[in-house]
Amino acid sequence: MGADFSQPQRQSVIGILVMFFYTLQQYARALWPMIVIWVFKFDEVNKAYFLLGMLAVFVSIGVISYLKYLNFTFLLDSENQEFIITEGVFNKTKTAIQLRKIQQVNIDQSFVQKLIGVYELNVDTAGSNRKEGAIKAISHELALELKSRLLENEEKNTVIGTAETTLEETEQKLFEAAHPFIKISFLSLLKVGITSNYGRSIALLLVFFSTIYENLQNFGEENAIYEEKVGTYIDQNFIFQTILLSIVLLFGIVLVINIIRIIFKYYDYKITRQKGSLLLSFGLLNTKSTIIKPEKVQITTIRRNYFQKKMGILELKIKQATSGEREERKSAIEIPGCSETERDSILKLLFHTIPEKGLLLQPNVRKLVFAVFLTIGLPLLGFIAVGYWLEPVFFEYSYILPFYIVFVGLVQFFKFKNSRLFINENFIIKQSGAWDVSNDIIEPSKIQAITTSQLFWHEKLDIGSVTLHTAGGNITFQLGNFTKIKHYVNLWLHKIETSDSNWM
Are 118 and 139 in contact (CB under 8 A)? Predict the structure, then answer.
């Protein structure tokens, strides 16, 4: 017999521990500097007071956690078609969520929740910039039942007109629900860890190398008297080899950390078909599950770099409808380590076809000139100005300039080369990136608003920009042929007005 959600329900009793750990975590984040100073800078008497204070904090957190558990209830109001959550410690708040506005219900499990044996249920609506409701401690069976009840109306709507179902179709649906049609392998995750986050790795290496160089330079200036003696004992080749080995070691450490992070985040990544939608579950310590509904997909991004192309993998990023910019990043669902075949399977389920690149729009060469001026010209002028009038010592670092100019120049060139807008009847594809090349795919019917802009000195050149606004983010194409842009904008506006698709 199912649970009676018409009556107020509490979380699992063991959920008190979950609330305790979460509250403790909040206190620790706020007070850790004070704790560190107190431990290392105070005498034994103050340390004793510190321990007593910590004991008082733990007791307070325990009491607060119990009150949170006691005052937290949830129920389903069938009459008003609402999901009601009551919570609070001293001041109780009541949240009523209309069932028809529920966008998705996710069942997740953090590391602490996994240790205790409970799950977290999150309710998300399309009209909010945060999670509307969250139950931090609930059993898996109860979470599944509650999720089914919360989405019952949507399932009923889906079933209308499909009452007649053959036995074979039913068996096929049950098979799809039990067997994931895509499973990201451990080897694919290793490939992702090896071939991603190059920017972070290069930045760390540059910081490390510059620090080593500064220390060696300062050592030489401060110990010029002993330079000759030191030179007799230390081989300069040995110093060079040591620095090179340190750089390689640091790069290896960054690589290992990145691999570990990817594996922890995306371990056991499974994608299952569920009533025309995609059910995703992944995570080692923190297990997450979410549903992707094709009608709510706003922007689909396919991204890969040179090494990923050679290894036969890519990354998919899917953005669903959100209500604010703060939730835009959180709404992006990443599917790492996909093969081209898996990519095509996902795209077919989302769009019922594989999006193809159509007519091409390219940016004007002035986009490249302007980017070079901002990233190379202005920094060089600033370097010269500071070095000439304020700090002549800056000119000692002029040996870096050729490397900077070549590197940044190549980045801007490839950004310009890869900046493209492809247009066909059903899809708009924005291509961008220097090393990691991305293709953002949107359907014209999903566009909420369109913004065109043109600087007055670009009017004679007939170049301008366009921004496509969707519920999952924006796509901007700069300095293209403005006549063609306006032509396609009129077509997109017509398609928006005549479309009956529901993106919510």
Answer: yes
Phi–psi pair at 223, nearest 5 degrees? -125, 40
Distance CA 122, CA 95 (A): 13
DSSP string computed for 258-269: HHHHHHHHHTT-
Interatomic CA distance for residues 113 and 115, integer angstroms = 5
Give the list of residues 6+ apart from residue 46 with CB closer than 8 angstroms, or none: 38
Contact 120, 110 (CB under 8 A): yes
pLDDT of amino acid 162: 42
Query: By the 8 A CB rule, do 504 and 321 touch?
Result: yes
Between CA 101 and CA 297 the distance in angstroms is 16
Of 3-17, 181-195, 216-230, give the range with the top mean pLDDT.
181-195
Sort 249 into a burial class: Cβ within 10 Å, 0-12 / 13-18 / 19+. exposed
- 281 — phi, psi (to 5°)? -140, 135
CA dist 333 → 187, 289, 390, 411, 494 (Å): 21, 11, 49, 27, 30
pLDDT for position 54: 78
Residue type for position 334: E
Helix or strand run (H / E) with residue 138: strand 133-138
d(CA 461, CA 484): 13
Amino acid symbol at 3: A
Q: Give the model's confidence band at 460: pLDDT under 50 very low, under 70 low, under 90 confident, else very high.
A: very high
- Higher-scoring residue by pLDDT: 165, 140: 140
Angle between helices 140-150 and 152-159 in degrees, nearest 10: 50
Max alpha carbon distance in the chain (Å)?
Answer: 94
